[in-house]
């Protein structure tokens, strides 16, 4: 007897069909895309088919990284500490790429120390880069994307924005603020098909964290809190960004995805486990 009932199993033709690159033909702006996490993110999205624009303050270093990327990348030097820079940068990205389908707000700086020592200058300098710039960029991007039928914004946040940690009051406040902005922007722009999500990073080895992770006691102590038993990598983060950038996550918005090996959802066990 022949059956015409369809199966969830793909036909052999479908199995053999080439899988399209998830961001084929898309245009992407990655801030801080020339080094650290941003470099791996820009490479992953470019390999996934996108044409990327990468930003940072060092044009020569950006150009050197761009040579490693496929799909005719664009280099846009800008200092996000300048209040006018975010919107001007976004306009330059649209001019260079023709459009921006995906924005990855990755550029960021750290500040760790006792709260009593904080100055107004410290606060203003950090919030300018970690909160003001991504917020203004996301707002500009959302308006642009809405006019084109939709798009995706991915904000790089931190576990310290959620859980707190001694010495992280300023940095944590900036990332917690970015989490809140992510949810508010998702609510505002969802009706225009602009998705806004975050990737919440724990401790990953880059220039920013190398000194900390080179301390074996600190590193081993941190790894012992991670259920998956290892440090995350820049590739772990880039894969999560790709997912939130691409159509695979088309029904996901306003979410902050913890990419931390399970740390954020795990309390210390009351008894040792084998
Ligand atoms: N690594 C971690 O463990 C970790 C953990 C949680 C969250 N994060 C977040 O992940 C993101 C990337 O961090 P990372 O570890 O890759 O840091 P990184 O290696 O220090 O890189 C920081 C990036 O931000 C750019 N940037 C910094 N200040 C800028 C400014 N004023 N104007 C323009 N660009 C600026 C840098 O470019 P130039 O210096 O060339 O301008 C660089 O590309 C940050 O938002 C960070 O808060 C990292």
UniProtKB/TrEMBL annotation:
| Highest taxon of the lineage | Bacteria
Q: Mind listing the UniProt keywords for this protein, alphabetically?
A: Oxidoreductase
Keyword Coiled coil belongs to the record: no
User: Record keywords: Protease included?
Assistant: no
Q: Name one GO molecular function term.
A: 3-oxoacyl-[acyl-carrier-protein] reductase (NADPH) activity
Q: What is its EC number?
A: 1.1.1.100
Q: Which family does the record claim for this protein?
A: Belongs to the short-chain dehydrogenases/reductases (SDR) family.
The name under which this protein is listed is 3-oxoacyl-[acyl-carrier protein] reductase
